[in-house]
Write a structure and sequence with these properties.
single chain, mainly alpha, Four Helix Bundle (Hemerythrin (Met), subunit A)
Length: 173
C-alpha cells in the first residue's frame, strides 16, 4: 500500500478517536464509582494556564475532521467557543467526528494536497499547502490534545494506561 495523505492521517485519527471515546467512558465510570461530579473531570487541567479536559477532547475533533473541513474551505481557525459541558455531548461529538472521517472519500483528500491553505488566528496568518497543514500543524495538534486529555485523567487518578491511549491497533489481516 502506498502512503497517501489519506492513509497518513485518517486511519490514525480514527484509531485515537476510538481511544478517546474509551477514555470518556472510563472517566464517566470513575466519576460514578467515586461519586464525583462530572465537572470535576470535565474542567480538570494539568496546569492553571492550560485548557480543561473537555476542551482537549473537543480539540481532537477540531484537528481531525475540522482540519479536513478547513482544508476544503482553504482556511482554518482555532475553535474558541466553549467546549461541550457533559460527557454525553463529548461522546456524541467524538462519534460524529469518527462517522464523518469514515465517510471521507480518500480520493477527495488526495485532491486537496497541494492546495493553498491559510491558518488564521486573530491577526496571525500562516500559509501552508494542504498536506503541510495536515501533517505539520493539525496532526501534531491532534496528538497533543489527545495526549493532554489522557494526562489530565491520569493526573486525576483515573485508572488508565498506555493501551487506553493507543486504542485498537490496525493489525495485518
Amino acid at each position: 500500500m502506498a502512503l497517501t495523505l489519506y492513509t497518513a492521517t485518517v486511519p490514525s485519527y480514527r484509531q485515537i478517536l476510538g481511544a478517546v471515546a474509551g477514555l470518556l467512558n472510563t472517566a464517566q465510570t470513575f466519576c460514578a464509582e467515586r461519586q464525583l461530579a462530572p465537572e470535576q473531570l470535565l474542567e480538570a487541567r494539568l496546569a492553571s494556564d492550560m485548557l480543561p479536559f473537555a476542551y482537549q477532547v473537543r480539540a481532537t475533533t477540531t484537528h481531525s475532521i475540522g482540519a479536513i473541513e478547513g482544508l476544503r474551505r482553504g482556511t482554518f481557525s482555532p475553535d474558541r467557543s466553549a467546549p461541550p459541558g457533559s460527557f454525553a455531548a463529548l461522546e456524541r461529538l467524538v462519534a460524529d467526528t469518527d462517522a464523518a472521517l469514515a465517510a471521507l472519500d480518500p480520493a477527495e483528500l488526495e485532491a486537496l494536497a497541494g492546495r493553498d491553505m491559510l491558518f488564521v488566528a486573530g491577526e496571525r496568518r500562516v500559509p501552508f499547502t494542504g498536506e503541510n497543514f495536515l501533517l505539520s500543524f493539525s496532526q501534531p495538534n491532534f496528538y497533543f490534545h489527545a495526549t493532554t486529555a489522557y494526562d489530565i485523567l491520569r493526573a486525576q487518578g483515573v485508572p488508565i494506561g498506555k493501551r487506553d491511549f493507543i486504542g485498537a491497533l490496525r493489525l495485518k489481516t
